[in-house]
Amino acid sequence: MVRNFSMHLTAKLPYYPLQRFMRTLLIMATFLLCNNAYALSKVTAVVDKNPAMINESILLTVTADDDVNRNALDTSPLLSDFIVGQTSVSSQTSMINFKTSRITKWQVVLIARNAGQFIIPALTIENQQSEPVELTIIATKDTGSSDQTDIFITSELSSNEVYVQQLLTLSIKLHFAVELKSGNLTEPSLTGASIEKIGQDKQSDNIINGKRYRVIEQTYAITPEQSGEFTLQAPLFSGEILQASKRRSSFLSFAQTTPVSIVGDELNIIVLPIPANYPSNAQWLPTDILTLHQEWQAGKDQFTVGEPITRTITLTAAGLSKAQLPKIEMKSSRGLKIYPDQAELHANLNSDRLVSQKVQNFALVPSAAGEFLLPEMNVTWFNTITNRIEQATLPSQTISVQAAEGTITASLPSDFNEKTSRIDHSSNSPENLAEQAHTENTLVSAQDKRLQWLFLSLWLLTSFAWFVHIIYFNKNDATRRQSRSKQAKHKNNSSNQYLALLAACKKNNAEQALNLILPWLKQLLMSNNSELVINNIAQAQAIVQEQSFATALNDLQQHLYGKSATNGAPSWQGLALLTAIQVVEKQQNAKTKDYPFSSLNP
User: Fold this and answer.
1) 51: preceding bond cis by omega (within 30 degrees)
2) Helices vs strands, H then E, count in the chain
3) Beta strand residue intervals within 139-167, DSSP E
4) Can you tell me the distance from the alpha carbon of 104 to that of 286, in angstroms, rounded to the nearest whole number?
5) Quick check: 185 and 227 in contact, CB under 8 A?
6) Which of these, 494, 516, 485, 486, lies nearest to 578 by C-alpha position?
7) Does pTM top 0.70 for this prediction?
């Protein structure tokens, strides 16, 4: 195959013109000679300004007269005296009259922290070195100079001395009087502290010494977690600014960009420890001010049994983050159930101070009429202005709850049991015992004296009993029929209420289930004991005493009064309450079967 391919080329050669072949060889030789002639021979280094101000960016341009590797420049010798910022690399190749030139250019942004005389050392690229550059850095400008810095950064702390976990704010402002193409501002850094940005960047205009600046402001919340002396690292801005083209005609001219970096000032912070006299059982809350405030539902001066009461407690603190706000707890009282909602947290900047709030709603559900005492609420905090321990207090308060309209004052089951007990024990009183003893003595005496009257008396008593039986039989029979009719009516009503309640539970309808529970319990319990007076669910629960029913009912009230559905919680499921209701119904029906003649006269 090689032999045939060579022969084919040889056969074709005579057909090419000799002049064309020689020209091709000449061009190839020219390119080879150009590549060899333009090897790297020189490296130069220049700066864009000299002298320069402290913390002002200096653009160092390093140029090599050949196409070399982009990573050939080593900038580590500059780190001893300067902050090395953004570095950009570009290469260019041009050919004029068969003369090719290639250059590689590095642009390095330098920032000097200290004033004085400095020397940018010689930089090496492929065995070629640049000349050292002398540079003067001044702290301030001459008073007679009309120049003013185009870009600078200012930083300000709300306080340079704080306590552990005391929040302070940091404001960083970037001032620029030139047009920015792009830029990036580093976030602050502090050892042993948590830092969080607050809000969005703010933009404004400001005139300083007769020069207009555009200002971008960022605000951070800093919470130190350790005591001691710390240094907040200076912020660094790196970006590119637009410069107008130097060409005379603006037609087809493009704006050029120049990289720039600006560094701000470092800030010192002193963090104090927690005072030794602060209570160990209290949460550490260092703040300027902390208050407690309460509100009751609008238009409610009087409260009714069974109706929920909304109490809103707001805790406000300046200089604390939302995560630092303590938990708000309300102690329960006997006869008063409390259902807390999910707390709402807010934080806003007010006069460069962070103000945080926690809003907590409580649903109070009274189960009986009367007066209820709400205990005092206290929050211990440390005043960072006066350096004293203080307490925010909500004083104790008494609320009055009245019975619902159209209801009779409830009698507790214990009253009914006591009343029944008094009736049972009345038959054993001394008067009845004495009367019984006197009757027995009379009968014994009569038997001894008049035995013949015994049979006559017994006959008369028998005849009288028979007469009473005949006269009152129909009346007693009617009474029993009436009692049975009432029991059947109660049973039918209870059955209707029971079925409706089960249907509400199956449909997971919480409001309808709660409205049907009390009528069902009244019909169910009062059918066994007509003397019972039941006006609220709490009285019925005391009689039933079924734990599963109490738990399911408490979950139902928590769902309704705690407003869990509005906070994105799952909807109420009525299976647990349905099962508990079936258990209570079965227990009460069993009691009715055990005492079938409880409603009959003796």
Assistant:
1) yes
2) 9, 30
3) 151-157, 161-163
4) 59
5) no
6) 516
7) no
Cα–Cα distance, 500 to 523 (Å, whole number) = 13
Instruction: Give dist(CA 385, CA 161) in Å, integer.
Output: 12
Looking at the DSSP bridge assignments, the partners of residue 43 are 64
Give backbone dihedrals phi and psi of 9, rounded to 5 degrees, phi first: -65, -40
- Cβ 172 vs Cβ 155: under 8 Å: yes
Q: Measured in whole angstroms, how far is the alpha carbon of residue 47 from the centre of its chain?
A: 52
Domains and CATH numbers, the chain: 43-138 (2.60.40), 151-272 (2.60.40), 289-402 (2.60.40), 453-594 (no CATH)
Q: Out of 118-122, 256-260, 487-491, 499-503, which region has the weakest mean confidence (pLDDT)?
A: 487-491
Q: CA angle, 207 as apex, 58 and 158 as ends, to 5°? A: 80
Reduced 3-state DSSP string for 430-478: HHHHHHHHHHHHHHHHHHHHCCHHHHHHHHHHHHHHHHHHHHHHHHHHH
Report the run of H or E that residue 9 belongs to, with start and end: helix 2-12
Model pLDDT for residues 491-540, shown as the tens digit of each residue: 555 567 788 888 888 888 888 888 888 888 888 877 766 667 777 777 77
pLDDT digit string (tens) for 357-375? 999 999 888 888 888 888 8
- 168 touches 142 (CB < 8 A): no
Measured distance CA(511)–CA(557) in Å, rounded:
9
CA distances, 435 to each of 143, 427, 432, 515 (Å) = 127, 11, 5, 54
Q: Is 5 exposed, middle or buried (CB count within 10 Å of its CB: 0-12, 13-18, 19+)?
A: exposed
